[in-house]
Amino acid sequence: MRFFNCLPALAFAAIAGVSCQNTIIEREHEPLTPMSFEKVTLEDDFWLPRLKIQKETLVPFSLDKTAYAVENLRRTGQYLRGEKIEKGFEGPYYVASDLFKVMEGAAYLLILEKDAELEAQMDEIIDIIASAQDKDGYLYEVHILPEQKHNNHRKGGSGPTRYSFVDHSHELYNMGHMYEGAIAYYKATGKRKWLDVAEKNAQHINKVFFEGDPNYNGGKPVMHAPGHQEIELALVKMYHATGNELYAEMAKKFIDIRGKDRQQSRYYSQAHIPVREQREAVGHSVRATYLYSGMADVVSMTGDTTLMPALNSIWHDIVDRKMHINGGLGAVPGIEGFGPAYDLPNRDTYDETCAAVGNVFFNYRMFLMSGEAKYVDVAEVALYNNVLAGVNLEGNKFFYVNVLEADGKKPFNHGTAGRAPWFGTACCPSNMARLIPQISGMTYSYSEDDIYTAFYAGNSTVVPLAAGDVKLKQTTDYPFDGKITIEVEPAAAGQEFTLWLRIPTWCGEQFVPGELYSYADGNTSKVVAKVNGKRVRTEVVDGYMPVQRAWAAGDKVELTLPMPVRYSVADERVEADINKVCITRGPLVYCAEQPDNEFVASTYILDKIGEQGKVATFNEGIMSGINNITLKSQTVDIAEGTTSPATLKLIPYYAWNNRGDNMNMNVWFSRDAETAMKSITRAVGNVLDVQASYTYPNDDPIAVADGKHPKSSNDHTIPRWTSWATSQLGKTQTLEVTFRKEQPVESVSIYWFDDHDGVYLPAEWSMEYKDGDEWKTFQPYITDRFGVEPDQFNMVHPQGEVVTKALRITMVPQPNKAVGVLEMVIE
Ligand SMILES: [Zn+2]
User: Fold this and answer.
1) Omega of the bond prior to 587 within 30 degrees of 0, cis?
2) Nearest CA to 105 among 439, 455, 461, 459?
3) Out of 55, 85, 165, 513, which residue is the most buried by the measure of CB atoms under 10 Å away?
4) CA 782 / ligand 1 centre spacing (Å)
5) What is the pTM of this model?
6) pLDDT tens across 250-264, in order?
7) What's the gap in Å between 335 CA and the centre of ligand 1?
C-alpha cells in the first residue's frame, strides 16, 4: 500500500486557496480473500435468528421436500447393482440439483454447529449418491436407469443418450451443484466420500468433453458448453478445495468454448457469441449470473484480464438498464430472463429469486476480484430486498417470482398470489437453503495488510493479516440502524494496517450503483467515522473510508451511516415508474402491504417528496423487531378519480406476505392522481376493468385494454389475455369490459392472438352490452360481421345507438383450441 498523506490535496489546495483537511490514502487494486463464513460468529438480531430458522425449519423442511430425489438416486444405485427396481425416475430431470443445494446448506449448518443427527442423515444420503454413480464416474439418473423406467424425460430435456443434448439436459448443472455440496460437506466434516464421488465425476467429464472417451461421442471430445451454467463456478470451488489445477483448467475451458459452437436457444443460454465478445446481459437471468460469476472467478484465479471488457460492460448493462430497485433481475416471464433495456414492469415482472441470488454471487465475486465497494453495494441491495423476500420469516414458504406490485388476486407466483410451500422446480427454495448460512463470511475480506468491511452485521472474528491476527468485534442494529461499532484487537500493539470501511452508495446521491435510480428528495446525510472518539479525516476512496493507523488493543471504531427516509425516482425510460417514487431507508426498499393500510396499496399517492414521517418498530407478532415507516399521503378513488388525505404505512419489501396470502402490495407510488389511475387500471381511456371467464396464469385480461398495439397475431412482445389451459381447450370464453363512465360505443375492434401452439383464432364470437342491469345483444351494422382475421384489428359497428357501462365478448374457440386477445379498441 502507498500512503500519499496530503500531497495531492496540497497541490490542489495551493490553487484553490483552501487548507488541507483530509488525508488521501490510495487503495491498492488487488484481489481480496473472503473470510471463511465459519470463522465469523454472528451475534446480531437480524441474521442470527434467520440462521436459527434455517436450522430448525428451512433445511429440515427442504430435505423432506427433496426426499423423492434421494429415492431416484437409490433406485439408480439398485439398478447399477443389478437389483430389480419397482419404479422409474420421478420429478423433473434436474431434481437432484435441488437436493444437492439443500445438502450444501445443511453442510454449512454443520460447520457452524455440530449436529450428529443431521450428519448421520447426510451420510446416509451420500452413500445413496455414491451408489448411483456409474463405474466411469457418470452420474445422472435419467440416463443410467433403463429405457422403460424413466418416464418421457429422454424425449424432452434430457436428450436420447448421455451428453447428447447438453444444451438442455442439466447433466452438468446437476453435477456442478453436487460439487458445491460435496465441497461444503468435506469442509464441514473432513469426510471425503462425497468429494471423491465429485472428483471422479469431474475427471470423467474432463475426459469426455476435452480429451475424448471411446465410450462417448464416438471417442471425439464433446467440446460443448452446457445450456445451464453452474459447473464453471463449481469447478473453481473444487480447485480451491483440492488444489488440483485440472479443475481450474476445466472451468476456464467451459467458459472459453461457450458461444463458439452451434447451440440451441443461444441467447437464452448466453451462447450467441463467445463470452469475451459479449457486452449485454441477455437470456435466462439465472444462467447468465452463474456464467458471469464463473467468469469473475476465472479472472481472480488466473489473472486473465481478457474477460474484463465483457464483465465490465455486462455489469453496466445490468445496473444501468436492467435491474429493479430491489436488486431483482430477469423481468420477462416467458424466458425467465432479461428483457430489453428499461423494460422493468412492477406487476408483471418475473425477477426469479435465484436470479437475485445470482446477482449477489456475481457482484460479490466482482468485489473479491477488484476490491471495489460498488459491487458490494449492488449485492447488498439484492440480498436485503429481493433475495430475502424469497422466503417467509418462518422459513417454510417461498417466492419463485418477485413482483413489485400485487393486486392480491393475480396468481403471479407460479399459481399463487403469495408465497408457495414448495415448487416442482425447487431451485429457489434450495438456493435460500445454501445462501443464508454463507452470509457471515461476506462481512469481511482482506489482503496482506488491509481489512475490508463488506456487509455490516453484529459479529466476532479474527482476520489473519500477514503481520498477525486481528480480532474484531462488530456491534450494530443494521440494516435498521446505521451505527456500527468495531472493537479492534491486533496481535501486538502498534500493528499497522488499514481498515477500509465501506460507505454504501445509498448514503450518497442514489440508492444503488448504476444509472437507473436517483434520490429526488434533496436530503443530505453526513457519514462520520471516529476512532476512540476522534473524527477520522480521510477521503472516501472507491466507496471506502480508510482508517489507517498503528492499532492498539481496545481501539474502537465508530461509523455512523445516517438513514433518513429517501425518495428515489427511476430513469424516465422505465415506463412503469414514470412519475412515481420509491421509498428506501438504509439498504432497504419499503413497500405498502394490505394489513397495514386502509386502502389498496397502489392507490396511495406521495406528492410531498422528502417528508421524513415516523420510523417505528413492530413489537409484536411475526413482524416483531422489523421497522416500519408512516408517511402522510393521499389516496385516489379509482372510480371517481378524486383524492383524499390518507396515512401510508410502509414495511421492508423483504417482509411482505408474512401475514396472510392474497394481499395487495406496492413499491412504486404515484406522485399524482392521474398517474395512479392509469397505473392501477392500466387500461387506456374510459376502461376501468376487464374480467375473463378464465385466464392463463402468465396472462392478464386488462392487457387487452392497455393501449399496446401488436405487430402481428403472433406478437409475443406485448402483454395479452389467453384462455390457455388443458382444461379450457374448446371451451367458450368471455371477456367483460367495464367502463368508468357510461359511454356511447361507435365501434369495437379486436386483435386476436394466434401462436399456432395451443392458442388459435376463434371459430366465432359475439358481443353484448349492458343496458341497466340487463345484457342486450350487440347487433352489428348491416355490412359488418364479427371478424376472425389474423394480423389486424377486426372492427364492428353497432346497428343502432349503443350507450353503455359494460361490454361482454363471447368467444367460441376452434375444437380443442384456446383463444386469446392481444388488444381491443373501443371508440
Ligand atoms: Zn429459482
Assistant:
1) no
2) 439
3) 513
4) 55
5) 0.86
6) 999 999 999 987 767
7) 13
